[in-house]
Amino acid sequence: MIRLTTALLSLFLLMIQPAQAQTSALSALPDCGFAERIAMDGLRVGAVVLNLENGQGCAESLDERFQVASVMKLFVAGAYLERANLSLSPQQRVLTFTREYWMAGRDDCLRREDIGRSYDYLSLISLMIGCSDNAATWMLMDALGWGTVQDYVRRHASRGAGEVLPYAEVDKRKLILSDSRWRDVPTVLASRFYRVGMTEGLGEYLNPLPQRLHGQQYNTLNARYFRETESNTATPRAIAEYLIYLHLAAQNGGWANQVLAQRMFAALLTTPRQYSMESAPADWRIGSKDGLDRGIAAEANIVFTEDDPLRVRAVVVVFLQQTRSDSRAFQLPTRPDSPLNVIMRQLSGIIMGYLG
Asked: Strands 94-96, 66-67: parallel, antiparallel or unpaired by DSSP?
């Protein structure tokens, strides 16, 4: 392990708007060597581990794009909070969960019984980050405007992140790869079918009704979709830089940026501890956002200091992506014992060596 010099770390302090100043500091980190420690064919590994207190850390595949799924919700939250600091219309402050956003997922936080309920935007951001609720993400993006979210990504992730798509749209695009007729199906109907096999309402668009997908079909569609799209992708550098941006905004960013960072930190702290941080002491305050799909696991973590709830002492970003969908050891998003989750746990002890 090496230490970043004081001069390099001071580059971070130049940034409140994004982020060329961080590039040299992250580029100076030594290679983590995580991929060499993992005996899995066809696995891509990306990472940034940076202790902001002493400069120790490492990086791996720093500028390679990875599918990171729900980690991109960080940018949706940031874009909404930035707009909230300026002005929100009444329709953007309180949003109603309608049937058109009900995705029917078994683990969703916004469920059928919640249809018709209204939520303020901070509650939806909390659901989007802490529960990783996809309907909440979709509602917030529609209310704010997808273009506004993409503009925020361009300003805060430079060329290191792709287009942000709500996962209902991702579900539909995966189905289109199997049958082009899905293009004409409303997104919410496609998403319900993809997630739980629901065919209600599909007869108007598809005849005969499709058969529900099975496990290997899901794996094959996922792998093809990931090969052919850059939507919901990011480099380890892009996510690490954004987490550092939030830290600096909280410390030095003026009132508006401090409010944005504080609200983001509050949401991140509602997320359960991630596998990559499992070896951390129980009393550490860690805010996180994960991204899960078949064949991928992505985790972005902020470790806070003990004496200042707004000061970040470390950032940890780990991306794992399988390139072979026919592997017997294939990641399933809802299973704690899936292989990529196990690898994250194994890496956790190594990561702690940098954080002390």
From this structure: unpaired
CA distance 346 to 305: 24
* Model confidence pLDDT, tens digit, residues 77-121: 999 999 999 899 999 999 999 999 999 999 999 999 999 999 999
pLDDT digits (tens, 9 = 90+) for 185-203: 999 999 999 999 999 999 9
Distances (CA, A) of 352 to 303, 304, 341: 11, 14, 17
Q: pLDDT at position 25, please?
A: 85
Same domain, residue pair 308 and 269: yes
Helix (H, G, I), strand (E, B) or coil at 155: helix
> Distance between terminal CA atoms of the chain?
12
CA distance 230 to 99: 29
Greatest alpha-carbon pair distance for the chain in Å reads 66
pLDDT value at position 326? Answer: 80
In a domain? residue 266: yes
Give yes or no for a contact between 221 and 176, defined as CB atoms under 8 angstroms apart.
no
What's the rounded Cα separation, in Å, for the pair 174 and 169?
9
- Do residue 302 and residue 341 come from a single domain? yes
Inside any domain, residue 83? no
In this structure, the answer to whether residues 223 and 236 fall within a common structural domain is no
Please, which residues bridge with residue 319 across strands?
A: 46, 298
Judged by DSSP in three states, 60 sits in strand
Nearest to 3 by CA among 60, 55, 59, 52: 55
Enclosing domain of residue 328? 2-71+232-355
Structural domain ending residue among the three candidates 204, 228, 252: 228
The last residue of one of the domains, among 228, 245, 260, is 228
Helix (H, G, I), strand (E, B) or coil at 274: coil
> Contact at 8 Å (CB) between 194 and 211?
no
186: cis peptide before it, omega within 30°?
A: no
Residue with tokens 């000061």: 311
